[in-house]
Amino acid sequence: MSSNDTIRLLLIHDTPSEAQRLVSMLHNAGRPNRAQHVASAAALTKLLQDKTWDLLIAAENSKQLPPRWHCALSANCRKTYR
Question: Rounded CA gap, 55 and 75, in Å?
């Protein structure tokens, strides 16, 4: 993956401003991205069904989507970046 490739990113965090901070950090590091903040299990399910995603970043302490959701649904993110 070149540094010019846009990362399709799902963010699971209770605070939209913190999710935006993560997007800004990636952008400032030269990693272009298209991010979607996820606020509920229903929204996550729909987003995973409707689109292909490269990366899912989840807050461990999210109240809206507990960690069991992250593991169960992250298989829909198809790429691994290292």
Answer: 10
Measure Cα distances from 17 to 8, 11, 22, 54, 74 in Å. 18, 11, 9, 21, 22
Contact 33, 9 (CB under 8 A): yes
Categorize the per-residue pLDDT at 63 as very low, low, confident or very high, splitting at 50, 70 and 90.
confident
What stretches of the chain adopt beta strand conformation (E)?
7-12, 33-38, 55-58
Do 77 and 56 form a contact (C-beta atoms < 8 A)? yes
Residue 26 and residue 31: Cα distance in Å, rounded? Answer: 5
pTM of the model: 0.69
